[in-house]
From TrEMBL:
<keyword id="KW-0274">FAD</keyword>
<dbReference type="GO" id="GO:0016937">
    <property type="term" value="F:short-chain fatty acyl-CoA dehydrogenase activity"/>
</dbReference>
<protein>
    <submittedName>
        <fullName>Acyl-CoA dehydrogenase, short-chain specific</fullName>
        <ecNumber>1.3.8.1</ecNumber>
    </submittedName>
</protein>
<dbReference type="InterPro" id="IPR036250">
    <property type="entry name" value="AcylCo_DH-like_C"/>
</dbReference>
<dbReference type="InterPro" id="IPR009075">
    <property type="entry name" value="AcylCo_DH/oxidase_C"/>
</dbReference>
<keyword id="KW-0285">Flavoprotein</keyword>
<keyword id="KW-0560">Oxidoreductase</keyword>
<feature type="domain" description="Acyl-CoA dehydrogenase/oxidase C-terminal">
    <location>
        <begin position="127"/>
        <end position="249"/>
    </location>
</feature>
<dbReference type="Pfam" id="PF00441">
    <property type="entry name" value="Acyl-CoA_dh_1"/>
</dbReference>
Amino acid sequence: MDSTDPESLRLLTNSVRTAMTESSAAGSAKLDAALANLGWRDMLDEIPQLAIPLVFGLLGETGAHAPVLNDVVLRAAGRPSGHTVPLPFAGNAWVIWARSDQDTSAVDGELPIHRVAPADPLPGVGLAAGRRALGWWLVGTSRAMMALARQHALDRVQFGRPIAAFQAVRHRLAEAFVAIEGAEATLRATTNQTDQLACLLAKAAAGQAALTTARHCQQVLAGIGFTEEHQLHRHIKRSLLLDGLLGSSRELTREAGAVLHASGFAPRLADL
């Protein structure tokens, strides 16, 4: 596929979105197979700069899930994809994202994620590529939460006006929007997925943006935002879990500070 052709990109985006919306209710394994049939692993080899933002961003926006993070980490490390690999989690824990639909006791019970014994550290390039991919997933999830809160603000009427007219609601949505746009800009500046510091910072920014967005959107949705009757709770749980995977935003911020302190200078990560 010519990644510079807008029509080809539109068709590819529609195909991936359709696969996610049709397969997500059937489970992770079915979507994994559907993405493989669409040539996900070939795209990961040939056009990773397009494939990763597209697939992981849509996973966030649609609320679907698939074990494709395994493929990103394995391919970046020069190992065959289609398998699983132990992944570090916040708090010095380790998990594995199964390529099946086994039950899990994780924060998000929909995801086939299971705790495992501590494993050898991931290769730096694999860890960096995985963090960048998760950053796009977190941004997509943040946009989904933002869309839900925005629609609620337009539909919910109080004192004869949509609550979108109230300054406090606008401020919350504006702060969430700025956080999301900043995280995406950081990810787009990370053109080299082997740049470990840049990918670390991008994932930290995306995780913090998702947590900020979750907090503000839950307040905009008020009481309904705290219940399982609304879709917001699924995205909030997904944000919490994805933030912790391969290092939480808090842990990564501390790690970045330690790296900069040890080196004695801050490298230029993007040309402005």
